[in-house]
Design goal:
200 residues; alpha/beta; Rossmann fold; Arc Repressor Mutant, subunit A; 2 domains; 18% strand
Amino acid sequence: MPTNYVLIDFENVQPKNFEIIANQSFKIFIFIGANQTKVPLDIAAAMQEFGENAKYIKISGNGQNSLDFHIAFYIGQLSLEDPEGYFHVISKDSGFDPLIEHLKNKNIRIQRERDLAEIPNLRLASATSNGEKITAIIKNLVGRGQSKPRKLKTLANTINSLFINKLEDGELMSLIKMLQERKYIIVNQGNVSYKLPKLP
């Protein structure tokens, strides 16, 4: 199974949902800016769970986009060492996108996501049972923390993006209805609120 490399722009994103990639083939690199002197305890504890598959890269200089250049360097180095790897830049900075498009044209499997929950490798094939789909949806929504969809249409789009094959409208609405019946979501005039279980 190909290794997934997660390169986190810690100046831009501080994930709270490392548990969604636990027990999978992931290697994590957190790039910390020169002016960032502390890592929150919950993130340090989560990183510790990954053992040797997790590393901190502390940037020493303060130049503009210094951290971004370091991430770019590591992508290049890692892609030479592991041409079959998948690379995920976790950042809200769209400045990475031209580089990512260039690397894709060089047959490097890479993309930028704003959150760990957006990593496509966490999606399920549409051939799974409804029970497995509901579990995957809940896992994804819990992993989004405070950034869960607040509108019904956005929730539907989020659910659809989890699956490799696009869901039929009827199946999509059926899954949303199941979430309502199990009281995981409450829909009121197109607005969505949540009562999700904790991840095991």
